[in-house]
Predict the structure.
Amino acid sequence: MPELPEVETTRRGLAPHLEGRRIHGVIARRANLRWPIPTDLHELLAGQPVLAVRRRAKYLLIDVPTGSVIVHLGMSGSLRVLPGDTPLRAHDHVDFCLDNGQVLRLNDPRRFGAVLWQLAGTTHELLAGLGPEPLSDAFDGDYLYQRSRGRKAAVKALVMDQAVVVGVGNIYAAESLYLAGISPLRPAGSISRERYRRLGERIKQVLDYSIQRGGTTLRDFISPDGLPGYFEQELHVYGREGEPCKGCGRALKHATIGQRATVWCGHCQR
């Protein structure tokens, strides 16, 4: 599933093509993806100018004066800005038609994505209760330390909890914990403030670097320019079970935390 860096890469690629443009209409070729597509989306958007393209957690928000279109890419979705007469491919489900003759086209083979509507001045239920953005000033190691007190669950589960901090998915949690030297199995409440400060810094570092590198190429992810991400080539632990640790050379360990595969170094991470 595209994680925060992939979604942010997509946002940055789309924003110059959408912001300041006007939406002429919407063509939905399906009634639903993961959830029903609003039947009145065309009426809601026709003639509306795009004020901004934002990201909240792993959701993209296309802001117009009356509200926001919420787009989630699901497991395999992608968004591209194309000439309006571009032939359709399989799984091209939704077009947002722009005033310059181009379209923003959503392709989603597995149909786990979403196109939803948020009325101006309201917060959609999917966005309610989310924690702070990890690259914002509201998130740091001191915040993590405070949220971890009294928690017996594994620290990896803590940083992947969307109510604690959004967008730190499996890949980036594993990589950040490795760089911070913290075992993903450690009870969250047993880790010191100083080590959480290091972890907070590493989370920001890993996410920011991955965004610069275009995200992580996994399965079907493609950025708006049609190019894959490149961060996967530099992973330290994720997906490398049994391979030698890049730090000490020992074989990397594997476990399951919160139903997610976890790989770490038993020597470098304590």
